[in-house]
Amino acid sequence: MIVGxxxxxxxxxxxxxxxxxxxxxxxxxxxxxxxxxxxxDGALGMAYGVTATTFLLSVGITPAAASASVxxxxxxxxxxxxxxxxxxxxxxxxxxxxxxxxxxxxxxxGAYLLSSLEEYAGYIKPIVSIxxxxxxxxxxxxxLVKRIQKKPTxxxxxxxxxxxxxxxxxxxxxxxxxxxxxxxxGRHPKYTxxxxxxxxxxxxxASSITFFTVIGLGYWQVILGLIxxxxxxxxxxxxxxxxxxxxxxMILVGLVVIIVSIRQIVLGAPKFF
Length: 273
Hints:
79% of the residues lie in helices and 0% in strands. By secondary structure, the chain is mainly alpha-helical. It starts with a helix and ends in a 5-residue tail after the last helix.
């Protein structure tokens, strides 16, 4: 209902007609980015945000615009995913209620901070790239290291706040941070993934509304491209998910994210000197 209200409020027939005339060939780059990110996410169940953000940063999109676009597209993908998990009984209601409010607060804080510092985009981009570099390492570690049973994680609200905050700033990381931590702590993977995915819808929605309130809808082509690319890739990724070795794919994804992130750090380093 919330998403529908926003769509009908901002995308009137007149606005859609005007946006169509402004469409440029650059949208194809964003379609490619959405396609690649969704193919990876469909195979791994994670890394959509970090992959899409890394791609957008590499083609010159500012950190705030990249994160805003990724979260706007994730509103649709996480909404469907969360609903299906809820429908199939994969959601732990207690865990969901514990994560959702801190997650929303963290998303709003991260999005507002990143949007407010838009004029410092040249400095923020290498910092965000350092974060995506770390996430690339986490993805590789997740592929190589076997899960070790640990004591149940406490202070789940702080974990959700921190994960959503970094997710808004970096354009990705909610799944790798929150899901990985909870599963590694001994929680049941099925209910952890379902609860975290359902919470992600509210995190992405809160982040998107904050971004659009501060920086507007000037990057609608990026959002459109990511959504179109993701829609095209979704059925393909679903079919390939059981055929591609997940461990190999995760290592490759981590390496690509690390390489591209290092490139962004090197290009942005002169601004600090």
